[in-house]
Each structure stands twice: as structure tokens, then as C-alpha cells.
Amino acid sequence: MKPQNMFGVVLWSDAAAQKAVIWCEDQGELAFYTPGDGNVHDAPVLDAGDLIRFDVIVQQNVRKASNPEVLMPSHSPDLPKKLRAGSAIAGDANPPVETSKSEKVVSLFQYFGVETRTKLACSG
Question: Could you tell me the CATH number of the domain that includes residue 67?
Fold first, then answer.
């Protein structure tokens, strides 16, 4: 399977073990990151709240991230805490939450203030 390029926000990281859990732009399963054997020293340090671009593949029903690139460090450092608490994202009075039966789904696109699914690009 060919890797898919994706944007996401780091929800949890362990700098010592160089591991991270990533919320993906497509609202699918979370992606798990651990650098490969040859990439341990070249891997970027990921912190909770970092906006990143990465490649994702599914192996044994688990999404695995590779080649992470930090686009915006500390973009949303309080996002994991807010998601755990179930509070409004970014302090909005009307949080970007869609309710389906008893589930709450927070759209990454709405979180970033994007009305429609548009391609994000960074340069420079």
C-alpha cells in the first residue's frame, strides 16, 4: 500500500521514546508514530499541539505515521486537554461539534477555521 500524505495535530508524545499519537485531518483512526531504526537521530521532536504533515499507511489494522514534518510548533498546545475535558474548542461559545446519536465528533477542518475541505499548503 502506498503512503498517503496527511496533516494532523500531535495529541500525545514521549520525547525520550520518540513516540507520538496523531489526530488526522481525515477524521479516521489516530495515527501512531515511532521513528524507524535508521531514523532515530534524524527524527524531529514532536510535542503535543504541534501541527504536522506526515505520511500514513495502515499495517495490521493500525495507522502508522512516518516522515513527520513540523509545520507549526505549539499550534494547539491545549488541544489534548480540551478534548479530554469535552470543552469548547478554542473557547468558542458555539464549538465546532457535530452530534451523531450519542457521539461527539470534532472536525479538524472546523477546528482550523476551514469551511470546506481545501488543500492546505505551506511554503518557505
Answer: 2.40.50.140
